[in-house]
Amino acid sequence: NAGVTQTPKFQVLKTGQSMTLQCAQDMNHNSMYWYRQDPGMGLRLIYYSASEGTTDKGEVPNGYNVSRLNKREFSLRLESAAPSQTSVYFCASSFEVGGDYGYTFGSGTRLTVV
Amino acid sequence: DAKTTQPTSMDCAEGRAANLPCNHSTISGNEYVYWYRQIHSQGPQYIIHGLKNNETNEMASLIITEDRKSSTLILPHATLRDTAVYYCIVRSQTGTASKLTFGTGTRLQVTL
In whole numbers, what is the pLDDT of chain A averaged over residues? Predict the structure, then answer.
């Protein structure tokens, strides 16, 4: 049981390049999330998907797009990377039981845009 | 979304109890309080969560005041490995979606 798996773990991009961050969970969770964390700050929500086929914007969605490919996979795309997008990106998934939620986070993707 | 307020940093001697406070005065009646921690830049690790009753698990205890406007995370016997940033989070619900909104957390330093 791997939990939440993110790839790649590290990436360096040049300004203007595009890339897709991959996230997969094997826990049969309905909801998935993408967060970013800048140095010295807490995590900020970029996008989330409450269920397969739905996506919604979070706190900081500008410059990103997402795809909920199926129940397991939720990808984050940077179409034209900017230095301001240098950050650590975390994917998470959650389940619900009777209004109570459990969340699991991946180990992160460290992205540098030069 | 309900906001949380935590001290920026705290120190604790190894073997002693670490008591981390959190204020969430705007919490709604059906919103849960979650605690996560982050060691270095690893992914956040779940510690405990609760609604209104006090909770205990193998890692920690969570004490929620009767009015639910504040809570305290207790690590009963802190070790050096408990040095981390601890986040108190109120989960918000929008339709079928739930979200965790992180603040800046409390940096706990456990010392010898």
Answer: 93
